[in-house]
């Protein structure tokens, strides 16, 4: 059977399955799920079966060894008679069943303590259960293509009344759901509890919304903002590739993240920032980012990303396509949906894309393709020296696709743009959904769709470590990337000048509060801190004779506008005190500025920003 992630609810109604996952929650307050997997032979004569637990979750390129949360494993036949089992590897168990039904039982500890709270991990407590099945559902080797069911026994042990999932209902009991294969099962998150839910129909498809969290948020407002996001997807690609889609939105303090799925996405945002108008744009960009992934990465995907090997790393040099293109389109979609105005969009492009990339020394050390390939040991396991030797394919990839869009518009005089290339890539998926795309095929499809040979340009940008030609391409639209002016005039009251003009000093240090003091988290190469001999994990005691123990004190004493550029540091390395002197440099903030445009530049600019 060919690899497939596509499913409709109608396909599962009334089906039977020889592999059935049961979820019980009698000890949810202790973060425990009691798992039982019933496996019928299904016409397959075998003396044993092998169960395996995934070691990583697609969309998060890091080995997490989810088996570490499994305990109390046992195997019996249908009548409760114990069956012999043995561990073959850290995540593989062989059960000797002589062709009988197997009931494999184990506990799964679903708590984010030990992990950062994230959209990749299952977390269960007395109030709810969020299940990412790839964390806790073992698969039967050799039988991953079979229909499987998931039964949630929440009503027996809790007062949870709702189940939200992109798994398809099998029965009308609100508890039994199904997937056409294991890949779809583990790509389908589940929220169980008493959370906020809403539904709406658009373009013939259903859209479910499941919102969890505590604090001040307007759930109805969130649902309203999803409409233009869906409308943009339909407008751009022509149709929606699903019959039903689920938006899981989690609002909890301090956390941020997202994870894409074929028929759903999970977006996690800091509830403490949710009511801040300056921050809510970031929330909306997160929603657009994860929704855009249902086309780009779940369907338009590098050839290595599906079918999956859930036990081992799946290397690809094309995450710049999966995440870089999506990082460009998230803010562009946010603008197209009206969540950003033109001024705000240019500001975001300048600060969060162009300026952010310029501040990463590693952009000149690592190519975008190397960045993608090495993500398993770089992006998700960052060292203090990461930014100096490595650049994120999200960041540099996003800038690259932005500039490619401008390049296409300029070279075709506005007849084509990157949207046409993305539509071409989606048509390629529809012709052969079982097979991902190679880099050379991607370049060929983009070139044909845009009527422009992009091979030389993309090979140079993807494999090189030189600066991307942002200034040159921006100039074609009457834009420049230049030093930012202060956002506010330095006065108060009736235009009374406020002290001296503000200058922020750049030291090249990133600090963290730890153990009641300040420690160095990172030192940028070529910075005043590096020249002064300050290293990561050193403790900062004083600045210019003033004791500092918090980030706020550091800001006042090391980055004040009235300090001389000579900054004296008293620090500790491995228990020994030393002094260092930094000759700080003024921080230079850049922005994208619209200059006086020629008629031709204005026309291309309007094409680029057309909604």
The helix/strand class is alpha+beta
Largest sheet, strands/sense/barrel = 7 strands, mixed
Average of the residue pLDDT scores: 93
Number of strands: 32
Helix content: 25-40%
Number of helices: 16
How large is the radius of gyration? 27 Å
Strand content: 25-35%
Distance between the termini: 42 Å
What strand order characterises the main sheet? Answer: 4-7-2-1-11-14-13
- Apparent shape: globular
Low-confidence stretches: none
Reconstruct the topology from this structure.
Layout: E1 19-24, E2 32-39, E3 48-52, E4 70-76, E5 85-89, E6 92-96, E7 102-109, E8 123-124, E9 129-131, H1 133-136, E10 139-140, E11 148-153, E12 162-165, E13 168-169, E14 176-179, H2 182-185, E15 190-193, E16 196-202, E17 205-213, H3 219-237, E18 244-252, E19 257-260, E20 264-270, H4 277-292, H5 319-336, H6 342-358, H7 368-373, H8 386-389, H9 395-411, H10 418-431, H11 439-450, H12 455-463, H13 470-475, E21 479-483, E22 491-492, E23 496-497, E24 505-506, E25 509-514, E26 517-523, H14 528-531, E27 539-543, E28 546-547, H15 551-558, E29 566-573, E30 576-583, E31 585-586, E32 590-594, H16 599-608
Parallel strand pairs: 1-11, 17-18, 18-20
Antiparallel strand pairs: 1-2, 2-7, 3-6, 3-10, 4-7, 5-6, 8-9, 9-15, 11-14, 12-15, 13-14, 16-17, 19-20, 21-32, 22-23, 24-31, 25-26, 26-27, 27-28, 27-29, 29-30
């Amino acid at each position: 059977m060919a690899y497939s992630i596509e499913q409709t609810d109608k396909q599962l109604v009334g089906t039977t399955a020889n592999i059935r996952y049961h979820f019980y929650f009698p000890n949810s307050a202790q973060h425990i799920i009691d798992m039982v997997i019933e496996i019928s032979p299904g016409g397959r004569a075998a003396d044993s079966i092998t169960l395996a637990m995934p070691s990583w979750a697609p969309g998060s390129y890091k080995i997490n060894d989810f088996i570490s949360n499994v305990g109390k494993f046992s195997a019996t036949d249908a009548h409760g008679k114990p069956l012999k089992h043995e561990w073959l590897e850290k995540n593989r168990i062989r059960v000797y069943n002589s062709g009988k039904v197997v009931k494999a039982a184990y506990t799964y500890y679903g708590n984010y303590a030990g992990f950062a709270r994230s959209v990749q991990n299952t977390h269960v407590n007395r109030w709810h259960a969020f299940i990412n099945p790839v964390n806790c559902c073992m698969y039967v080797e050799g039988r991953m293509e079979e229909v499987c069911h998931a039964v949630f026994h929440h009503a027996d042990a809790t007062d949870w009344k709702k189940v939200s999932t992109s798994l398809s209902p099998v029965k009308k009991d609100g508890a039994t759901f199904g997937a056409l294969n294991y890949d779809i099962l583990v790509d389908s998150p589940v929220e169980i509890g008493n959370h906020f839910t809403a539904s709406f129909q658009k373009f013939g498809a259903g859209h479910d919304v499941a919102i969890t969290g505590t604090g001040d948020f307007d759930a109805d407002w969130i649902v309203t903002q999803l409409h233009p996001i869906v409308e943009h997807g339909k407008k751009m690609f022509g149709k929606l590739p699903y019959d039903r889609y689920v938006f899981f939105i989690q609002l909890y303090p301090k956390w941020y993240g997202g994870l894409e799925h074929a028929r759903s996405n999970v977006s996690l945002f800091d509830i403490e920032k949710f009511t801040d108008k300056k921050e809510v744009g970031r929330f909306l960009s997160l929603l657009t980012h994860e929704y855009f992934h249902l086309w780009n990465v779940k369907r338009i995907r590098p050839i290595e990303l599906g079918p999956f090997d859930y036990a081992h790393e799946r290397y690809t040099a094309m995450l710049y396509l999966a995440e870089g293109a999506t990082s460009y389109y998230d803010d562009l979609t946010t603008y197209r949906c009206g969540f950003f105005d033109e001024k705000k969009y240019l500001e975001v492009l300048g600060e969060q894309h162009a300026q952010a990339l310029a501040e990463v020394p590693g952009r000149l050390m690592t190519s975008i393709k190397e960045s993608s390939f090495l993500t398993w040991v770089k992006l998700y396991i960052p060292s203090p020296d990461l930014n100096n030797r490595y650049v994120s394919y999200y960041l540099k990839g996003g800038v690259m696709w932005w500039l490619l869009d401008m390049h296409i518009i300029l070279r075709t005089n506005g007849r084509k743009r990157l949207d046409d290339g993305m539509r071409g890539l989606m048509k390629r998926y529809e012709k052969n959904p079982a097979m991902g795309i190679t880099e050379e095929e991607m370049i060929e499809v983009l070139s044909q769709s845009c009527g422009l040979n992009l091979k030389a340009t993309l090979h140079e940008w993807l494999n090189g470590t030189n600066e991307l030609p942002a200034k040159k391409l921006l100039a074609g639209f009457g834009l420049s990337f230049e030093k930012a002016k202060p956002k506010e005039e330095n006065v108060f009251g009736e235009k009374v000048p406020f002290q001296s003009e503000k200058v922020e000093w750049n030291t090249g240090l990133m600090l963290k509060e730890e153990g009641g003091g300040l420690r160095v988290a990172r030192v940028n190469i070529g910075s005043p801190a590096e020249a002064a001999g300050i290293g990561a994990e050193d403790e900062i005691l004083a600045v210019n004779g003033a004791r500092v123990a918090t980030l706020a004190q550091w800001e006042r004493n090391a980055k004040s506008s009235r300090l001389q550029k000579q900054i004296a540091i008293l620090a500790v390395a491995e228990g020994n005190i030393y002094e260092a002197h930094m000759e700080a440099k003024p921080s230079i903030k850049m922005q994208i500025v619209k200059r006086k445009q020629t008629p031709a530049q204005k026309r291309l600019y309007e094409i680029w920003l057309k909604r």
